[in-house]
Design a protein that fits this description.
alpha+beta; elongated; Heat Shock Protein 90; 15% strand
Length: 274
């Protein structure tokens, strides 16, 4: 092989090497682009999933006041026949409270249809946690099976937190609703404490306790579509707690649940907002 042929041969090899390097670079670039696209798709799916579940939460929250109105209104005829007008007056107040709560939740629904649930878009504001809990307790005390349970607000009167009051209100609604449904003539106690960088809120009840499979699910990691089929198996029992877990994570917190000797305790640990 003469010198000229050798140079040509080396040139062809070099071109092939450069072409291989270019192909590798393009493949690597495409892989990176695909990874970014897949991550974006995953985020969008997760956001859509959470939005869908929040709408489901609001629909779930509407059922309690509706059922309360139907139940207590059905007793009016009997009470009138018994001429128990004092109790009829109390029922009227209960219907009024239930209607007001439905109106508030309708406002919340309209607000949530406008909210971008990305964490950076959430609006945080200062509010009294004691007062917010009292609003929820007042509703449940009047409308839940004619006051079969005792609700106790042990949150300090002067405790002010910075969070999203709409999401926080739905979290409380679902926690109290779940505790009330699983407690019969017992106690539901809400208390909270502040640490240096966290807010801890706990709801304890003297009810039947959280089932094993729901307890396991609640104490696992992030909510995700992988758990969707299993979620459906617990909709009838603890849909409120499933939704609470998702919303707590939107606020950047975590949820833990445990079974006590009597009843259960659900704890929310949320970061303090500056």
């Amino acid at each position: 092989m003469n010198v000229s042929t050798q140079y040509k041969y080396r040139g062809i090899i070099r071109q092939e090497e450069m072409l291989e390097e270019l192909v590798e670079q393009r493949v690597e670039s495409l892989q990176q682009t695909m990874a970014v696209l897949m991550e974006s798709e995953s985020r969008l799916k997760a956001q859509l999933y959470v939005q869908t579940r929040i709408v489901a939460s609001l629909s779930h929250d509407f059922r309690s006041p509706l059922q309360a109105i139907v139940k207590i209104a059905g007793a009016i005829d009997s009470l009138v026949q018994q001429q128990n007008y004092e109790f009829v007056s109390e029922i009227g107040k209960s219907i009024e409270v239930s209607s007001q709560n439905m109106s508030v939740m309708l406002d919340h629904t309209l607000d949530y249809l406008k909210i971008d649930l990305a964490r950076e878009a959430l609006k945080f504001e200062l509010f009294s946690l004691h007062e917010l809990v009292m609003e929820k307790i007042d509703f449940f005390s009047l409308s839940s099976d004619m006051q079969k349970n005792n609700f106790v607000n042990n949150i300090p009167v002067d405790l002010t937190v910075k969070s999203n009051p709409l999401i926080f209100g739905i979290i409380l609604n679902n926690l109290l609703d779940n505790a009330n449904k699983n407690t019969n003539h017992g106690f539901i106690i809400i208390y909270a404490e502040l640490t240096i960088d966290q807010l801890v809120v706990k709801v304890s009840d003297t009810g039947s306790g959280i089932s094993d499979h729901l307890l396991d699910w609640l104490n696992q990691g992030q909510v995700g579509e992988v758990k969707w089929e299993r979620d459906h198996q617990i909709d009838g029992e603890g849909v409120g707690l499933v939704l609470v877990k998702e919303m707590v994570q939107i606020l950047g917190g975590v949820l833990y649940a445990k079974r006590n000797e009597i009843g259960s305790t659900v704890s929310l640990i949320l970061p303090l907002q500056s």
